[in-house]
């Protein structure tokens, strides 16, 4: 099973913008890089993004690797959606970010989302029929968008890994490495060639 944990050769997109919760970007990024993946910060504009600590104090800045308008899910093997309240609020107002998330889910590739991150998923209409968790203030939005919300440290639903808050990061980071190593889920990826 250990070999399945390796992410060598995989590229993981981290979709984030100004206001991202720093620890929710840094710890998942480190976890997948430690497992061998390459990460790319995908954002709304080139340059740098300003991370925050608990939405109140400025954290570090992070270099943007790619602008979301220029990206497609074909460029990546997995996606991380960190939180922070203003980060997903800005992302869900950007048509290119919403399109990227919607298209990414359509591929069946694994996605990790934490805290306020599901706001962008709600806007992309990809929570319908899925079970996930989030920060408490988003749960009504998720339910209204057709998702099933549970209050657990980490929830996995067919390649979608979700957690509630930075307190859940150890479990979240471990689970995204596992799910990203598995890649596309058979149920999601089934097509004309699936069978026997």
TrEMBL record:
Pfam families: DJ-1_PfpI. InterPro entries: C56_PfpI-like, Class_I_gatase-like, DJ-1/PfpI. PROSITE patterns: PEPTIDASE_C56_PFPI. Residues 10-179 form the DJ-1/PfpI domain. Transmembrane segments: none annotated. Belongs to the peptidase C56 family. PANTHER family: DJ-1 PROTEIN, PROTEINASE. This is Peptidase C56.
């Amino acid at each position: 099973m250990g070999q399945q944990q390796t992410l060598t050769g995989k590229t993981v997109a981290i979709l984030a913008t100004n206001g991202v919760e720093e620890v929710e970007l840094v710890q998942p990024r480190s976890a997948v890089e430690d497992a061998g993946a390459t990460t790319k910060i995908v954002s709304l504009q080139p340059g740098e993004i300003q991370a925050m600590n608990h939405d109140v104090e400025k954290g570090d800045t992070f270099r943007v690797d790619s602008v979301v308008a220029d990206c497609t899910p074909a460029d990546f093997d997995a996606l991380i959606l960190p939180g922070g309240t203003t980060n997903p609020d800005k992302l869900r107002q950007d048509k290119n970010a919403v399109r990227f998330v919607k298209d990414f889910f359509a591929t069946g590739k694994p996605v990790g989302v934490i805290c306020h991150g599901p706001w962008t998923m709600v806007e992309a209409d990809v929570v319908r029929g899925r079970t996930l968790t989030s920060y408490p203030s988003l749960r009504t939005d998720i339910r209204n968008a057709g998702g099933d919300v549970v209050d657990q440290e980490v929830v996995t639903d067919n390649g979608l890994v979700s957690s509630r808050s930075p307190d859940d990061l150890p479990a979240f980071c471990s689970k995204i490495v596992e799910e990203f190593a598995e890649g596309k889920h058979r149920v999601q990826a089934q097509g004309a060639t699936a069978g026997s």
